[in-house]
Amino acid sequence: MNKFVTRLLITVALILTATGRPGAHPAVAADSVRILLVNPGRGDIEDMIRMVETRVVPLDHPLLIAVYGAQVERSGAAIRDHLGEQRPAWLRFEIIAGELTPENLYRENPCTPDFRRLLRESDAALFYGGADIPPAVYGQKTGLLTAIVTPERHFFELSFLFHLLGGRQNPGFTPLLKEKPDYVIRAFCLGMQTMNVAAGGTMVQDIASEIYKLRFVEDYLALDESKRHDNYWSRLFPHDNFFWCHFQPIRFKPESPFVREMGMGREEYPLVCSSHHQAVKKLGRDLQAAAVSLDGKVVEALTHQRYRNLLGVQFHPENGAIYAAEGNGHKVSPADTVLVTMHDYLKARGSLEFHLKFWRHFAAALQPAP
């Protein structure tokens, strides 16, 4: 069976299973904003649905399209089935066939026609967090602290973002965004790292050991809180009820969209949900830092010199717990005696509004020009 027939059968099957009966399509408005969710987890999808329904993401007629590579370790079909009747009519699933290898990521490959079609048929794309990128794809050996868990997922997302942005690995390749330069991209944590590598950048494989020259968890936790990028308390006390992330302040670049478009002050340092041990090292082609850690040693956000609606962040504004007034409480450190929700913690420290501005800015970028 050739690849074209395989893709056709997958598409037909998804149309049938998405609605429960042959020939039917989910009811969506003709003016729907079409947003790709690239290899999302079930929680990512549920959070996005809730954020749309509660107007955290203020879009009137979104169409969410969860896109998965057929070879990736995360099963889009299984997630679709788990959601079952909870799946709204404005959520669809699509699986992209095509074999990707380290040798064909940064050039035309079996997924190229689908990458081109996905761009043409959508208005925005979101890239989510996850495990470490295999260093071989950016020309490095694998560090002892690097954990390669989902290589096929990385191949898919690296190749997709390379097709969109181009990169110095293949200077003669024409980026797909050249034909659609106002396309909106948001990338979270791993997503931002993937954006950087896809454009020809490299990574710091471990912040604690490479940037701060530390070997032990206790020494890392002794650093000022602004220099930490994950909640390492859970490594010492795994049975305590700590947040999965560290709340870290970031500093905006004056020319960044945070200042110019979101209305953030240059001297504002909001707390963000940070959970990563790797960081951008060499910037990919045409990328520039939009925010950094307070000490300036870690890039916290990236923008593109040519594509103004591209924004990658090294934190997690997509986490639904930020916006939910009700939820489970957690501890930030062992000294805490009272459990608090993520929403209340950020609100009490004046950082909730920054996260709401992030999504209002995203929605505004998707509105038609007056």
Distance between the termini: 48 Å
The shape is globular
Question: What fraction of residues sit in β-strands?
Answer: 15-25%
Number of helices: 12
Unreliable parts? 1-26
- Strand arrangement across the biggest beta sheet: 3-2-1-4-5-12-11-10-7-8
Overall mean confidence score, pLDDT: 93
Largest sheet: 10 strands, mixed
How many DSSP-defined strands?
12
Measured as a percent range, the helix fraction is: 25-40%
Write the H/E string, N to C.
Answer: HEHEHEHEHEHEHHHEHEEEEEHH
The protein's oligomeric status is single chain
Question: In terms of structural class, how would the helical and strand content be classed?
Answer: alpha/beta
Rg from C-alpha positions? 20 Å
Question: How is this structure best described in words?
Answer:
Strand 4 (124-127), helix 5 (151-165) and strand 5 (184-188) form a beta-alpha-beta unit. The radius of gyration is 20 Å and the shape is globular. 42% of the residues are buried. The protein has helices at residues 3-19, 42-53, 76-83, 112-120, 151-165, 190-198, 207-210, 217-221, 233-236, 257-260, 342-348, 352-365; strands spanning 33-38, 62-69, 91-96, 124-127, 184-188, 203-204, 246-252, 271-274, 279-280, 287-293, 299-304, 310-313. Helix 5 (151-165) crosses helix 6. The strands form two sheets. The chain has a ten-stranded mixed sheet, with helices on both faces. With 370 residues, the protein is α/β, with parallel strands linked by helices.
